[in-house]
Specification:
3-stranded antiparallel beta sheet, mainly alpha, 3 strands, extended, 15 helices, about 400 residues, 2 domains
Length: about 400
């Protein structure tokens, strides 16, 4: 999305400059006119991606958290972050947010306009701060949530990077062996055996290159299609059909739900608004629909634990914790306890999945090397043996 730098004359007659993310010049004019500003100059300065890395968001909220605890107001904290951080997309977005805050918009409204960078979780938490006025606590909770997401990201990377690297190396060795050794093996075998080439060697030299050529276009198509929204949605649907992975995805969604609900309740939100906030962060349609039914039952007068027990996707240990929390009138602590235990279980399952992938892909890699030995190196060994006799 393009970033536009502007100079305007406000309704008070003061000059003001800034930057804004917009699709085109017309959108910039419309946004500025809604703010009762008369544009003097608008210039597109560069084209920026809508994506901001999780590391950048974590750095931003660490900075804001520290500044607020030092007594700095949020506008100055945002401005000081933009002065030293190098992500142009984030800087332009934060400048727009800062201007909105200075014009009297609430924190939730200001951040919600940049929903492509700050997701429903972050915006929802910031909106909860409007009801309590405790912005510092909410920012600390957002920071804690992002740190947990970063831990997941690092654990997933550690779990899959080694086995995938080994598999890629094995496939490269296979391709290079066929390309460079294949013709030489054929020539040696023909000279030795009068043109009789073993079937496995024929398969390696003649059939595998054709299969590789046939697979190049589909693989390129997948590589370009997967990063799109539709591609990610299809990939998510496919992953949900794999039992072990689908259970992990549901557990991650439940952890996020319980974590957000815990934060919202600790921020003194009423249960139904807190529940609505947590439900909005759920991406899985089946789980979201079930949680919405649970909410409707609570509104109709059912007890909270009883409503959750009517669902099919809520694990027994979560139901027990909710029952204890409702009975002891301490639901925030119950949902905090649930999210903490869920997080530990998820980390364990990610590590287990990584170990399973490591074993499976290592076995696959071993098969590739055995195939190379049998199809290419064994005929060479036979030729050397026959030449020696």
């Amino acid at each position: 999305m393009p970033i536009y730098k502007y100079k305007v004359l406000t309704k008070n007659g003061k000059k003001k400059d800034g930057a804004i993310l917009a699709d085109n010049f017309k959108c910039v004019y419309d946004i500025l006119h809604k703010k009762h500003c008369h544009p003097i100059e608008i210039k597109r300065i560069y084209f920026a991606s809508q994506k901001v890395a999780l590391e950048d968001l974590l750095t931003f909220f660490m900075h804001i958290n520290f500044q607020l605890k030092c007594g700095v107001n949020i506008n100055d904290a945002i401005d000081s972050f933009s002065d030293f951080h190098g992500n142009k997309t984030l800087n332009a977005t934060l400048l727009d947010i800062s201007n909105s805050l200075k014009e009297g918009e609430s924190i939730g409204e200001a951040f919600q306009k940049s929903h492509f960078i700050f997701d429903e979780v972050i915006v929802g938490m910031l909106k909860s701060a409007e009801n309590t006025g405790n912005t510092i606590e909410v920012i600390s909770n957002i920071l804690s949530f992002l740190k947990l997401q970063m831990d997941w990201k690092n654990n997933v990377k550690r779990a899959i990077i080694y086995p995938i690297f080994i598999m890629v190396v094995a496939l490269l060795v296979l391709v290079l062996s066929i390309v460079f050794l294949g013709p030489q093996v054929t020539s040696l075998v023909q000279n030795c055996d009068g043109g009789e080439i073993p079937q496995l060697t024929q398969f390696a030299i003649n059939v595998l290159p054709k299969i590789s050529e046939f697979m190049i276009f589909p693989l390129m198509l997948i590589a370009f299609f997967l990063p799109t929204k539709k591609g990610k949605k299809i990939l998510a649907q496919v992953m949900l059909k794999i039992p072990k992975i689908s259970q992990l995805i549901i557990k991650i969604s439940m952890w996020q739900f319980c974590k957000i609900l815990s934060i919202a309740l600790n921020a003194k939100l009423d249960f139904i608004p807190a529940l609505n906030l947590a439900i909005e962060t759920i991406k899985l349609d089946s789980l979201k629909s079930e949680l919405q039914n649970i909410r409707d039952n609570i509104i109709d007068g059912y007890k909270i634990a009883e409503s959750f027990a009517l669902g099919n996707l809520i694990p027994r240990d979560i139901l027990l914790a909710i029952y204890v929390g409702e009975d002891g009138n301490d639901l925030p602590s119950s949902f905090h306890h649930i999210s903490k235990n869920q997080y530990k279980e998820i980390l364990f399952e990610i590590k287990s999945l990584g170990q399973f992938m490591s074993i499976g892909l290592t076995f696959f890699t071993g098969l590739i090397f055995v195939f190379i030995l049998c199809s290419l190196f064994y005929p060479i060994y036979n030729y050397v043996e026959m030449a020696g006799t």
